[in-house]
Amino acid sequence: MLSNMYPCKLTYGDETFNSVEQMFHVLLYRFLVSKTMKCKTSFECKEVYKTYVLDKKEKKGKYESKEDYEKREKERFMAEYRIIHICHQVKFQQFKPFRDIIINSGDKDIVEWCYWIQDKSIDTFGTYKDEEKGLFVGGNICGRSMMAVRQEYKEGKLKVN
User: Fold this and answer.
1) pTM for the model
2) Cα Rg of the chain, angstroms
3) Cα–Cα–Cα angle for 78, 80, 84, nearest 5°?
4) How far apart are CA 72 and CA 112, in angstroms?
5) Partner of 132 at 20 to 30 A CA spacing, among 40, 41, 42, 142?
6) How do the domains of the chain map onto residue ranges?
7) How confident is the model at residue 130 (pLDDT cuts 50, 70, 90)?
8) Beta-carbon contacts of residue 109 (< 8 Å; ≥ 6 apart)
9) What CA–CA distance (Å, rounded) separates 33 from 23?
10) Interval 7-56: pLDDT, tens
11) Alpha carbons 23 and 4: distance in angstroms, whole number
12) Mean pLDDT throughout 88-100?
């Protein structure tokens, strides 16, 4: 039930989605369109594409500094986090089984273990288990978002219908 692909009806605005995954991709697409519409040159549009669409391992340009690349990666990471967080807030408010699991997790860490990850260098949404270190490694955007939703609820900042 914590999976973004778990089927559940979610209403956001005047639209209904069948899962967090579907809602996330629609909102991400709209975000990209809005950023692209603000472009004044084709170069700016190419930068939007390079930041948000290309595979992570292909993103760093030949003539791009490490600092510029890291700045763009942070911007992409934060944009995707904001979008997935909205999706998790909606799921928490509208899907009781998800809400119950999140509330009953207490103060435990929530970690999305992406056992299917092949290329360990590209995941930001979940984690993979580093067998050598015996630790979960990765951005864990989804787990962090769910823990933030839990905290917002505890602090009374997130209301349930």
Assistant:
1) 0.82
2) 17
3) 115
4) 24
5) 142
6) 10-154
7) confident
8) 143, 147
9) 15
10) 999 999 999 999 999 999 999 888 888 877 887 777 777 666 666 665 55
11) 9
12) 98
